[in-house]
Each structure stands twice: as structure tokens, then as C-alpha cells.
Specification:
The chain is an alpha+beta fold and about 375 residues long. It has a domain of about 120 residues: Roll (Chitinase A, domain 3). The chain has eleven helices and six strands. Strands 1-2-5-6-3-4 form a six-stranded antiparallel β-sheet, with helices on one face. Strand 3 and strand 4 form a beta hairpin.
Length: about 375
């Protein structure tokens, strides 16, 4: 699956797959149309009689995390108190067991570690673990929106599948200092963030994809107190270029043209002949109506890969649009300057021809008159 996603996002040879997708966030079900999370919701008839702090201590109480009924959490085994809850940015380790509504186990991990708040895992897990206490075991019931969404996860999780998660919070500790990471550690961390961005891109959640790519770029760009080998430096640059290219693709999907243009330019600073960046830059400029600037950029991309049909098609489309734009502009300038249209030229010629006939007759008549006068003078002189 990840290989397929990377072909779409990072592969320089596969424009058609990426650009034929007309993914639109409007295709995702709006919040009010998403099915409610299923499962029994135990109501305590005496909950209104308890004090404010007592409700949270009841292990049978369901908590509506987002207030929409789509994500709920219930404590099965109490933890060590509110003070022991993990903080965003910490690395947490949990025991996870995920099941479908029919009880089928689709994921089981005795020790899953992730950075809290970075959206490295399912949103349902990332949001609810922030509300858990150390040592607590909780049951989480989540709509597909906060799990694998409309896409599902082939082959075990169908589209729009709600999940039940059983989670135990085992450990929470501060994330490692980025300045002290070795080259391999930094590359590994950046790649994990990038791959998570690819996951969200595939799910058509471009906002979260951008978030993951941004985090990866921050990891790569962070200062370091450790020396890297030339190979590690080259690999970090490769990951950076991939992140920037994928970031531009996500920004384009959201019509964030200025941001996408900036991402493309950053790629081209490192790799002036990066076909993906050239193509996307041309697309951005075309979307902004800058056909004159977009066409030479797409020509440069086509020169690097003459057989690419997608670049051919895009370039042909832009050339036609540019020609149409120039025609419209020319007509507009003529109207502004008060110049007659080209169609009026024949009328001018016709008018000129109409006036030329009387002048010819006048000239002939004058010549005859002068000849008659001259003849009269000659005759008079002889007499």
C-alpha cells in the first residue's frame, strides 16, 4: 500500500496517476451525515446527584470526547490520577487492540509508541490518549471518520467501518532532543512523519497530510550537535525534497496556490531539474492565470521527459488558453483606445472607392475646358 502511495506522490514517472485524480474534499461525508458511533451507551440515573469530580471516577461512565457522539471513551481500569496524564509532544507507549463491530480483531499491538499530538496514529487514539491517566485501561468507540474513513484499510477494514479500541497507557516520556539525534535516527523519524503524511493524502485528508509533512521538514531542518556523514546528508536532502513535493501536491488540492508555489521553488533551489516540482509549479501558475510564465516551465519539464503524456496534455491546454487570453486582451485594448475593429477595414476601402469616381470625372472635365480655352486663343491670334 505504501509503495503505491509513494508512486503517486514521489515518483517522477507517474504524473498521470496523480493528476487524473480529481479528489475533492466535498466528496467526504459532512460531519452531520456521518453515521453515529455504535454500541451501548450506559446512562447512570444518579449521575445528576454526583458532585463535579465524581463522574470522572465512575469506570462505567462514557465520555463524549467531541460532543458529537462520534468518538466516546469509557474507563475500564482507573489510572494513577489526572496529574499522570501525558502531555502533547511526549512519546507515549500503549497496548492496543482494535476490533470491528462484529468482534473481528484487526489490529493488536502490545507496545505501540508514538508522539502524542502529532497525528502519527489514528485520530481516535491520538485524541483519547491525551485524556487517559498512567496505567489506565480504556475502551474507545470511534466512527470511521476518526479511524480509516471512507477508504478503509485493505484487506481487513472495510470502508466507513467504525472501530472499538481497547487501550492501556503504559508509559509517557519526553521526546528525544532533535539536536542529539544521529543521522540515521533523524532520517528514520523524518521518514515516519512523511509516510504518515502519505497516509492522510491517500485518505484525502490534505490538512493532516500538510501537518505531517511540515513536522517532517521541521525534523530535517532542526539544528544538530552531531556530525553526519555525506551519505546521511544526501539522504536527508532526498527526504526533504520528497516532503516538499508532497507538501506542494497537498497544498494544490486545497487551492493554496501561493504556499504550493513556495514549496515548488524550495525543491527547485535544490534540484533545478526536478520534473515533479516543475510540473506542479506550472500547474500553480496556470491556476493563477499566469499562462505566459507557466508555459516555459512546462516546456522545460517536457524537455526533461519528452514522452510524458500528462505534461504534453497540460502544455497543449495552456497554449490554447494563452492564445484565447491574448485574443480577449487585444479586443479589450482596441475598445479602450477607440480603435475600429478589423472588420471595419473593408468599409473604409469601399468609401474611398466611392469618392474616387467623381474626382476622375472632375479632372476630365477640367482638362476639356482648358483645351477649349487654349484653342480659342490660338484662333483669335490667327485672325
Amino acid at each position: 500500500l505504501w509503495n503505491w502511495v509513494e508512486v503517486i506522490l514521489d515518483g517522477a514517472e507517474d504524473f498521470e496517476v496523480l493528476e487524473e485524480d480529481e479528489d475533492d474534499l466535498s466528496e467526504l461525508p459532512p460531519l452531520e451525515d456521518v453515521g453515529r458511533a455504535r454500541g451501548p451507551l450506559r446512562e447512570d440515573a444518579q449521575s445528576s446527584e454526583r458532585g463535579p469530580g465524581e463522574a470522572a471516577e465512575d469506570p462505567q461512565e462514557w465520555l463524549d470526547v467531541l460532543g458529537s457522539g462520534l468518538l466516546k471513551k469509557k474507563t475500564l481500569v482507573p489510572g494513577q490520577g489526572v496529574e499522570s496524564r501525558p502531555r502533547k509532544g511526549q512519546d507515549v507507549t500503549v497496548r492496543l487492540r482494535a476490533t470491528l463491530e462484529d468482534g473481528s480483531v484487526v489490529e493488536e499491538n502490545p507496545s505501540l509508541t508514538f508522539t502524542l499530538g502529532d497525528c502519527d496514529v489514528l485520530q481516535a487514539l491520538d485524541l483519547c490518549v491525551q485524556l487517559m491517566e498512567m496505567g489506565e485501561t480504556a475502551l474507545i468507540m470511534s466512527d470511521a471518520k476518526y479511524c480509516y474513513g471512507v477508504q478503509g484499510r485493505s484487506p481487513d477494514i472495510p470502508p466507513n467501518a467504525a472501530l472499538t479500541l481497547e487501550v492501556e497507557l503504559l508509559e509517557a516520556q519526553d521526546a528525544p532532543d532533535l539536536e542529539l539525534l544521529s543521522g540515521k535516527e533523524k532520517i528514520g523519524l523524518a521518514n515516519r512523519k512523511r509516510e504518515r503524511g502519505n497516509f492522510y493524502y491517500q485518505q484525502a485528508d490534505y490538512v493532516l497530510a500538510i501537518n505531517s509533512y511540515d513536522i517532517a521538514l521541521k525534523v530535517i531542518s532542526s539544528s544538530s550537535k552531531v556530525d553526519f556523514t555525506p551519505d546521511e546528508e544526501a539522504e536527508l536532502l532526498d527526504v526533504k525534497v520528497k516532503c516538499l513535493n508532497n507538501l506542494a501536491a497537498s497544498q494544490l488540492k486545497l487551492d493554496h496556490y501561493e504556499a504550493a508555489l513556495k514549496s515548488c521553488n524550495l525543491v527547485l533551489e535544490h534540484q533545478p531539474e526536478n520534473i515533479k516540482a516543475l510540473f506542479r509549479k506550472g500547474k500553480v501558475l496556470a491556476q493563477q492565470g499566469e499562462y505566459r510564465e507557466a508555459i516555459p516551465i512546462l516546456k522545460a519539464a517536457l524537455k526533461l521527459e519528452p514522452s510524458n503524456k500528462t505534461i504534453h496534455a497540460e502544455l497543449s491546454k495552456l497554449v490554447k488558453k494563452h492564445a484565447d487570453q491574448k485574443t480577449v486582451e487585444t479586443e479589450m485594448y482596441r475598445k479602450m483606445l477607440g480603435n475600429p475593429r478589423a472588420s471595419s477595414a473593408p468599409v473604409k476601402c469601399k468609401d474611398k472607392l466611392t469618392w474616387s469616381i467623381p474626382w476622375k470625372w472632375l479632372f476630365g472635365a477640367t482638362a476639356i475646358a482648358l483645351g477649349g480655352v487654349a484653342l480659342s486663343v490660338v484662333i483669335a491670334a490667327r485672325n
